[in-house]
Amino acid sequence: MNAAFNKMKQDIKEEAIAKKAARLIRIRPSMTLATTFDGDPWAAPVYYAGTGRGLYFFSNPQSRHIQDAIASGNAACAVYEESTDWENLRGLQMSGVIRPVPAGMEAAAAVSAYVRKFPFIRAFFKAALKPDLAGFQRLFHAGLYCFVPRRIYYTDNSFQFGFRRQVRRKALFP
Description:
34% of the residues lie in helices and 34% in strands. The chain is α+β, with helices and mostly antiparallel strands. It has a single domain (2-172), classed as Electron Transport, Fmn-binding Protein, Chain A (Pnp Oxidase, Chain A, Roll), CATH 2.30.110.10. Strands 1, 2, 3, 4, 5, 6, 7 and 8 form an eight-stranded antiparallel β-sheet that branches.
């Protein structure tokens, strides 16, 4: 009986942590991507929308972080709340891959989520240009990419200093 209770208590903790992690993805506007190629690291902040399989963002296909990520097949990402108090430091640390998202249903859903998260983006589009994948490509010379996490860790000093727990991918990206 005690083992079953402890397992239920652990599951509730995992669910609460997953909810906090999902909230962080929802409310934070930007993530920091980290890439490396030939031992030379690079970091780049980008706006993103979390939906479906991962974190979707627009970037120039010739940018260093895109070129490095495609060449190496690896990337890392951090999403975090800024705070000057150590007790309020919380965030996500993820490793995974960055992949281009071609036109289609996935791209349409990602662009829609992106425009919902960043409604100011509509001001960039004129009446003749829609805020869809083709419109973003023409206006910003940017491609749509998805950071697909392989491993996800949630950190939260409000639980205790240095608290860090792995979050199952399916809990954030079903």
